[in-house]
Design goal:
By secondary structure, the chain is an alpha+beta fold. Helix content is about 25%, strand content about 35%. Strand 15 (about 290-305) and strand 16 (about 310-315) form a beta hairpin. Bound molecules: adenosine-5'-triphosphate.
């Protein structure tokens, strides 16, 4: 294994326990994304990997060798930060070349590597410019170039796209994916944006309150979330949740019932147990389905987004969002019937919130 994090903990000097028992193994060439809400400990973990923050306990290995005590340079990591931290008085060329210049690398070699890096990043025409004459996206590419040129084994990125506008973010996102494909560099990428995580990652680590919630491929996280948090975090609009107690083998959905015997016989006998029932907005069908729960509701609001429409519904006291083809947009304030296919139903323990 290329990188190993074993039971890593971070306790800040003020006593705050920011990261709890973090375990992860990363293979060479993998693109791993740490995702989670603000304050969940993703930057702290990345900074411990970078050697910018000491590891309170646990073991960090690179190529099987303990690296806890190694400084950032010895770890062969390059980091791209949220703020680009470019030198304003230096040209793009000099900014990219800076690390190599410091190391006293031969000028010919620098020239060749800067040109190659600039080519990968589409910066060839900008090498003589100063950072202030670049767009946000171009500046971020220079920052990436500065990290790339060092040809280190591990590439770390902390919210590298957060200073860009929405359009630039989408463009840079695909560029980062392309750069990764070309360089094959092992990458650990921090973001709070689930779309970035889903589109870039080979594997995603979902964190909350300093704890890893789930590690998996984008597919696994979307289709097999281990708990309510992950289920609600991945997907837009998020998964709908209906909390209820099993009564006569059924759980309530507004004033209606979902018969567990039909969909999850193993849960039907759990009389009195609190369950969280979940279904994704895009799983709802407006045409009758076999092996599906039928729900009658009232349309409160619709949002036409182009190819699809978000439909906000109310059934009894229960609210939910359905995502339907925009050609099927229903009328507001009218009754609506939809079906939730058995295959798209999720059940979580009401107490522990883990999947059942
Ligand atoms: P964000 O997306 O907001 O950057 P994050 O998931 O990267 O969030 P971290 O920056 O890792 O979160 O912070 C994790 C927790 O540790 C936060 O609650 C933060 O307040 C706390 N923290 C960070 N640095 C320190 C510090 N030097 N001393 C004490 N607590 C800290």
């Amino acid at each position: 294994m290329y990188i190993t994090l074993k039971n890593i903990n971070k306790i800040y000097p003020n006593g705050f326990h920011a990261v709890h028992n973090f375990n992860l193994e990363i293979e060479k060439g993998e693109f791993v994304v740490f995702v989670g809400p603000s304050g969940c400990g993703k930057s702290t973990t990345l900074r411990m990997i970078a050697g910018l923050e000491n590891i309170s306990s646990g073991e960090f290995l690179i190529n099987g060798v303990r690296a806890n005590e190694k400084g950032p340079r010895e770890r062969e990591v390059a980091m791209v930060f949220q703020s680009y931290a470019l030198y304003p008085q230096m040209t793009v060329f000099d900014n990219i070349a800076f690390g190599l210049t410091l190391q006293g690398v031969d000028e010919d070699v620098i020239e060749e590597r800067v040109r190659k890096t600039a080519q990968i990043l589409g910066l060839t025409d900008y090498l003589d410019r100063l950072p202030r004459a670049l767009s946000g996206g171009q500046r971020q590419r220079v920052a990436i170039g500065r990290a790339l040129i060092r040809k280190v084994g591990i590439f770390l990125m902390d919210e590298p796209l957060s200073n860009l506008d929405a359009k630039q973010r989408v463009t840079m996102r695909s560029e980062i994916a392309q750069i990764h494909q070309e360089t094959g560099a092992t990458t650990i990428y921090v973001t709070h944006d689930q779309t970035e995580a889903m589109t870039l990652a080979d594997r995603i680590v979902v964190m909350k309150d300093g704890y890893v919630q789930q590690v998996g491929t984008p597919y696994e996280l979307y289709f097999k979330p281990v708990n309510v948090f992950v289920a609600g975090f991945i997907g837009e609009p998020p998964m709908n949740f209906v909390r209820g107690t099993v009564e006569n083998g059924c759980i309530p959905f507004g004033e209606q019932k979902i018969r567990l015997a039909e969909f999850r016989p193993d849960l039907a006998a759990a009389e009195g147990k609190e369950i969280v029932f979940g279904f994704r907005p895009e799983a709802a069908s407006l045409t009758e389905q076999e092996n599906a729960a039928r729900i009658d509701c009232q349309v409160e609001l619709t949002e036409m987004l182009g190819d699809n429409t978000n439909v906000y519904i109310l059934s009894g006291e229960q609210r939910a969002i359905l995502k339907v083809d925009s050609h099927d947009t229903p009328e507001t304030d009218e009754p609506l019937t939809f079906w939730i296919p058995k295959d798209s139903m999720y059940f979580f323990d009401g107490e522990t919130e883990t999947v059942l």
